[in-house]
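Notebook entry, structure prediction.
Reason for the run: the old model in the group folder had no record of what sequence produced it. Starting over properly, with the input documented here first.
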Amino acid sequence: MPFLKSIEQWGRRHASAAITLAAPDGDTKLPLKPSRILVIRTDNRLGNLVLMEPLLRSLKVRFPLAELDILASDVFSELLESQGYNVIKVDKKGQIRNPAMFWSLIQKLRIRSYDVAIDAAHPHSFSLSGAVSTVLSGADCRISTDADDPSGWYTNTVAEPPLYWHESRALHLLGSVWDDWPEWSPPELHPLNVLERNAAGLHVGASGNKRFPIEHLEKLVDNICRRVILEVYWGSNEERKAAEYLGSRYPVAVMPELSVAGLIERIAGLRLFITPDNGPMHIASSVSVPVIALFRIDNMERFAPLSEGSKILYAEEGPEPERVAAAVLETLSYY
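New structure, fully documented this time:
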């Protein structure tokens, strides 16, 4: 991590020299009635797109006549498209193989003549990629938080929010540069079709050390599968193998590969969702399904599920399966 940080700092110093060349000339005052707004978030994380939803929703409410575009990775852009947003997709791998794709994208952005570009990459630290994208978009007004003193990159900043704020609330704060900014409320997703079922969902995967150990998953399933109709969800091929292993040993339904829109619709019909800290956890919360969230990193305030009836269980090695099973049965008896 220190090595990667030093690379970013080096890039930031050298890129700063080019800001005056890339940034647009002229009046950079905050437009009171912008006609075209660009929101930038290009990482490959499903949950981060869900957490951006309050910001996007409030932009539509505050500026109903403005055209709103989101610059996002093509990996999970379907989530935003399923909610009616216009997404400009970034093919990161393709750009590495063919840099001409990057310059084609920049040209596409500049043709749009954005009044405002909002860097929603990270509210608590400077993101070089987010800053560069914001400048190269050609927008006259460029907005971010003031984390890590991003002088020169942005024309307007808001104070870095407290770390104990929920991440969706921290991102929503970016719009507070305008007066009469709507109050924050939790993320909301609206699936087209919902089939309600008397079932609980279990997601087997998460990234890195957020993952719930397979031996814990097996004990949990063993504790609840004969008392609860259980659907097992997965994302990657590795997670699929874990799901199929559980399906071979216990009376559970292993879900097929789902599109993002299909995942939203499927989760919305559940009575309960049991999951580590991952993107589907935020989807479940955003469609008002109670969540049993299994945390291994102590960052629950920032990334907690917010739906009614949700519970957070934390342990560095993963919450004990018996404790999780008790929480599942207790929650199902109320909801």
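Summary: Residues 40 and 71 are 5 Å apart (CA to CA).
The old model has been moved to the deprecated folder.
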